[in-house]
Amino acid sequence: IEKSISWSFNYLFKIISKGSIVPFVAKTGLINPSVNYNLTLKAGSYINGLSIMDALSGTLPVLSNAGIKLDGFSKKADLSNDVNIIINYFSNKITLLNQITIPTPNYDLTLEKNNWVHLETNEHYFKGGVLASKAESDKAISGVDSAIKTQLKIENPAEIRNKILGNLIKEERVNLPFTSNGNIKSPNVSLMIELPSLLEFGKGVLI
Asked: Which tens digits make up the pLDDT trace of 61-85?
């Protein structure tokens, strides 16, 4: 079955789906309300207006305090390739049964197995990572250099920049491991790694 599904956050997913239903629980004989689906999100689908990505674009204080901006994270993102997903649906709750990576031109979004979202309440728990494209990473690094020069009055920013970004660089790209919970429209997003702030360097705490 191929469908196009639009959700309240301005997503449009072109989906091919196949469901597996076990109508009765073997031990009790009662009706089984749980359904597993194999889904394919088709290339050309898009994500837009996701609050988690807005936070990770640089509005999250731990990022803004370190001078990190990734503006491409908050823009409309078209899927570069098909993505195969296995989900469980039970009582308005969707649970991810496999780890997935959603590739887009500006970033690759990875979501781990057992992440979930409740369709009625919008409550969710996500754990994953966002790997910025090389172009977005280069702009972020340049932005950190500029912030160091402007705020700390340091002409050669390389040493401090490497201290800020050292744990975030993966294959020459900026990688942000994160968790998110609460209402998905206004999520509580946390970075799963500690970052020093420019203020700490300005006070000489970390130099």
From this structure: 999 999 999 999 999 889 999 999 9
Q: What is the pTM of this model?
A: 0.83
Give the pairing type, strands 35-41 and 11-21.
antiparallel
Both tokens of 152, joined, read 């700390």
Q: Calculate the dihedral angle through the C-alpha atoms of 168, 55, 187, 170, rounding to the nearest 10 degrees.
A: -20
- Note whether 100 and 110 are within 8 A (CB): yes
Give residue 131's pLDDT band: very low, low, confident or very high (50, 70, 90): very high
Instruction: Name the 3-class secondary structure at 33.
Output: coil
38-50 per-residue burial string, b: 16 or more CB within 10 A, e: under 16: ebbbbeebebeeb
Measured over the CA atoms of residue 91, residue 99, residue 193 and residue 61, the dihedral's sign is negative
Q: How far apart are CA 104 and CA 9, in angstroms?
A: 17
Please enumerate in sequence order all residues whose Cβ is within 8 A of that of 185, keeping only pairs 6 or more positions apart, or say none.
Answer: 8, 9, 51, 122
Please report, as a single letter, which amino acid is at residue 135.
A
Which phi and psi (to 5°) does residue 134 adopt?
-60, -40
Q: In terms of DSSP bridges, do strands 77-78 and 46-47 run parallel, antiparallel, or are they unpaired? A: antiparallel
Find where tokens 């990190």 sit.
68
Count Cβ atoms below 10 Å from residue 150 Cβ, excluding itself: 12
Residue 120 CA from chain centroid, whole number = 21
